[in-house]
């Protein structure tokens, strides 16, 4: 679920790793560990650039148990465009994924966002987010995601995120198309939190698999009544096209 990449995103943030069976002299269960490396022209999280519209290099390691429990560690460089801000983000996720039927899956988890290499003047912005995701797999795969942080960015504010995602595999071509729409709302406590409006985010993408690698080109944007003011405050809310290559490491 962490899957901070909806494409990027979708993110993300939290992933379960399936078991595979290899046909040899005897059937063997594949390793429950999974590794992934990614390079992208922009690290976009829920419609907003986390690298000041610059490139990012990312890595992920996951473990999945037979009974559905999983754990993931994911890392990326970041640039919030503020002096003394963090240079790296490392996220830790733990959750439980259960197939309710042949088509329905339920995924519950918690993600810990941590940021390193920030100056002492910048402050601690680490926080937890609790996530629930329901996925229906058919001709089109559709997922609904709900996230809640009770202390967003260690500020005392409450953040809620809801999203709907869909993807479609185009036959045996290796191509797939995806789309998503999400809504972020932040409820500040007191007057300490800077004014920040709620907003929507959306994306459309096309991906092509090349063996263990997947190349994706996507368009990401923020929109809604408050989007113009957000864009005036920061270029990181502006729309853009992002190219990403992700490789599963054996």
Automatic annotation (TrEMBL):
Keywords: Signal. This is Uncharacterized protein. InterPro entries: CHP02001 (IPR010239). It comes from the Bacteria. Pfam families: Gcw_chp. Residues 1-23 form the signal peptide.
């Amino acid at each position: 679920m962490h899957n901070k990449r909806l494409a990027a995103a979708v993110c993300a943030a939290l992933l379960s790793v399936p078991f595979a069976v290899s046909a040899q002299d005897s059937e063997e269960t594949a390793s429950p560990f999974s590794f992934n490396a990614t390079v992208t022209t922009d690290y976009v999280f829920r419609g907003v650039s986390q690298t000041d519209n610059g490139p990012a290099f990312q890595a992920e390691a996951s473990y999945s148990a037979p009974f559905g429990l999983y754990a993931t560690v994911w890392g990326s460089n970041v640039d919030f465009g503020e002096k003394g801000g963090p240079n790296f983000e490392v996220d830790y996720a733990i959750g439980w994924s259960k197939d309710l039927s042949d088509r329905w899956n339920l995924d519950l988890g918690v993600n810990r966002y941590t940021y390193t290499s920030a100056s002492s003047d910048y402050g601690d912005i680490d926080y937890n987010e609790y996530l629930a995701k329901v996925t229906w797999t058919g001709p089109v795969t559709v997922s609904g995601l709900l996230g809640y942080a009770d202390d967003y960015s260690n500020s005392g504010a409450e953040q809620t995120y809801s999203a709907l995602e869909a993807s479609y595999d185009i036959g045996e071509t290796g191509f797939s198309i995806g789309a998503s729409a999400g809504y972020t709302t932040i409820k500040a406590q007191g007057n300490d939190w800077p004014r920040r409006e709620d907003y929507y985010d959306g994306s459309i993408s096309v991906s092509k698999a090349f063996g263990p690698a997947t190349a994706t080109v996507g368009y990401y944007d923020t929109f809604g009544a408050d989007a113009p003011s957000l864009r005036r405050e920061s270029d990181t809310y502006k729309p853009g096209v992002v190219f990403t290559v992700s490789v599963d490491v054996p």
